[in-house]
Amino acid sequence: MRPLSKRHAAILDKLTAPVRDGGHCRFDHAPGTYLAAVVEKIGPRRYSIAHYFEQHGDLVPDPDLEFVRQDGEWFPAAATMAIGSYTRAVETDQDGKITGVRRRAYAGLRSFAGTLLTNIKAQQRPLVPTSTEGDE
What we know:
The chain has 136 residues and is of the alpha+beta class. The protein has two helices and nine strands; from the N terminus they run αββββββββαβ. The protein has helices at 6-16, 103-123; strands spanning 24-27, 37-43, 46-55, 58-70, 73-80, 86-88, 90-92, 98-101, 131-133. It is globular, with a radius of gyration of 14 Å. The model has no long low-confidence stretch (mean pLDDT 92).
């Protein structure tokens, strides 16, 4: 299983740096033009990157990608889409270590994650959060 490319890993490093100790942050440097990117630490070694839109008063993530950081590398683990689809490509144990991989799902998710990260970098320059909140 190949980790994310060095280029995509560098983007993810910048996005997740403000939440390494927990909490979440928001990158919204183009309000009204692009959806903000929301980054959250959701478990040991596990992070979520999502765009949200409002529908009937509720916030809906689309997409919501989960990533695992292991041995200094990034691996896309799962994706949730607003249309109701969910893809899990990587299994982890309670400590967040990767224990299994669905190879076909992983290949597609890795490609999608690279595109998403490239787009976030282009849309949310500089990669500095516009708001940060710790664990609640």
